[in-house]
Amino acid sequence: MRRRTPARPITAAAWLVASAAALLAIAPNSSTLAASGDKQLAATTQKPALPANAKPAAPTAPVVIPPDVRARIVAKLPGAQASDVAVSPIPGLYEVTMGGLIAYVSSDGKYLLSGNVYDLDTQVNLTASRRNSARAKALAAASESNMIVFGPANAKMTITVFTDIDCGFCRKFHGQIAEVNKAGVRVRYMFFPRTGPATESWTKAEQVWCAADRRDALTRAKKGDTVKGKNCGDAAIQSQYELGSDLGVEGTPAIFTQQGDYIGGYLAPAELVQAIQESQKTAVAAR
Questions:
Q1: Could you give the CA distance from residue 242 to residue 234 in angstroms, rounded to a whole number?
Q2: Which pTM value belongs to this model?
Q3: For 5-35+64-137, CATH number?
Q4: Which architecture characterizes domain 140-286 according to CATH?
Q5: Residue 202 to residues 19, 195, 197: CA-CA distances in angstroms?
Q6: 170 is catalytic
Q7: Orientation of helix 214-222 relative to helix 200-209, angle to 10°
Q8: Which of 54, 132, 205, 279 holds its CA 20 to 30 A away from the CA of 157?
Q9: Which pLDDT tens digit goes with each residue over 79-103?
Q10: 84, 164, 234, 261: which is the annotated catalytic residue?
Q11: Catalytic residue selected from 4, 84, 167, 261
Q12: pLDDT by residue (tens digit) across 133-169?
């Protein structure tokens, strides 16, 4: 059963998170659509058959985004860079990716759409694929020197978990860390104190991070023990928190696979392994 403790509203990447909350739409479900029996819809989603002597279409030239379009979009989105803007599947809209967050913006930079884009011909969620790819890239770029890792480097499966020391389900998850590692899962912890900076949970994260033995300190803190150590500043906690925000963390524990799937909150070890394997299979099938 998946559970996670909700986080308080966060400010990082707020332009997209707020838009998602306000503009989230109900996406079509492929099984519902297939079972609807709507002949007209079925006809419009089927690809027309090509004549036997038809010549294959000539390859199309890649679409180039005009510099002025990039400039207008970037100017409207704080923190965005020109490289974050790409062509989208929808004519007239451009895709903007920041961390693991994706939105679609009009060429004049006036309108922003947040939600999933589906290809009705293939029933593929195009946004989910791009979102997972962006998350996977961001997680791969994160240095393990900025994490607390449990499990061998040659583990069959690796996950990144954003955790809060005071989160009940985070503590339950860590209480089973030995079983999770034994099942072949390597856990890379990063901190995401749900209450934000300058709070008790944030201070506890700092104390664990500044301890001489972070793994031991984290385990003791999860049990409710007080961890004392030298003050080494909050730069590491801040960077971890910001990455979680950019990836769309909504609560803790927030578990991500190497493929970029956000598989949710607490999962029992057996359920966790199954979810990771499903993520791996989906990624292979999509290649």
A1: 12
A2: 0.74
A3: 3.10.450.70
A4: 3-Layer(aba) Sandwich (3.40)
A5: 27, 7, 6
A6: yes
A7: 150
A8: 205
A9: 888 888 999 988 889 999 887 788 9
A10: 164
A11: 167
A12: 999 999 999 999 999 999 999 999 999 999 999 999 9
